[in-house]
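User: Some background: our group keeps a shared notebook of sequences we're curious about, and every so often someone picks one and asks for a predicted structure to add to the entry. Today it's my turn. The entry only has the sequence so far, pasted here. Could you supply the structure so I can complete it?
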Amino acid sequence: MDRPPALDISGLTVRYGGTTAVDGLDLVVPAGQTVALLGPNGAGKSTTVNAVLGLLHPDAGRIQVLGRSPQDAIRAGGVGAMLQHGGLPSEARVGEVIDLVRRSFPTAWPLDDLVVTAGIDGLLGRPVDALSGGQRQRVLLALALAGEPPLLLLDEPTSAMDVEGRRAFWTTMRGLAGRGHTVVFATHHLEEADAVADRVVVVAGGRIVADGSAASLKAGAATRRISFTAVDDRDLDALPAVRGTSRQGSTVTLSTSDAEATLRALLAAGTPLPDLEVRGASLEDAVLTLTSTIGAVR
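Assistant: Of course. Here's the predicted structure to add to the notebook entry:
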């Protein structure tokens, strides 16, 4: 028998007063996928996650989580969540908090495996108030996994982590996906989405404006990048099709909607182009192009 989708959202609409935060959103996530939700601040990502978790009542639409209502799926231990502003009780030790949460589920993740999976070895005896930002995120991950949930929802999970911590975190996520867990995450670190997600869903103005693999979104973006070593300080912003310029040391990078036209103009002007490189759009380029004309709402 086929498993129901991990997440099935149809016509989701959420309003705050006169502002529509989510506007008729449809999204189906099959079991076992790793999905990145991308978009600007106020796009509706966090509101969608909160609706899936039953933390707010939608104005319209239907949400099914693992074939059940959000409330029933959560009561059954089917959903784990790391929210952007998740907290931990003070004046307690990590092990005490994890033990309390594990006891609330009908089936708890075995403690030894949970400690290794979440990367919290050595932290069980530590006071919660003594944790670093990255360690707190790891403990929050352990709490999200405590019931061995088939679906994991993450809202900016690596915001307090350094580069090494973020790398280790996503190694953990890939391991969970390999075990069959469904992972849906919202992030502003687009390189994470590019490296980890099977599927990228771009949200703007409360609606989905793109849905596909990171590679397909990048291939569909008109923007290209031209970089070379600058030998003078001439103005490059006025070149044909250039949408923006940046400099890092002596390297200049031009974002252009027509690489051929930009290169022709550079050559006609006699601009030296040592170390010339032309690249396709990054995921950041693609997302900016998709969302630049759509006003963000909360």
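Suggested note for the entry: The chain has a mean pLDDT of 90. The first strand starts at residue 7 and ends at 16.
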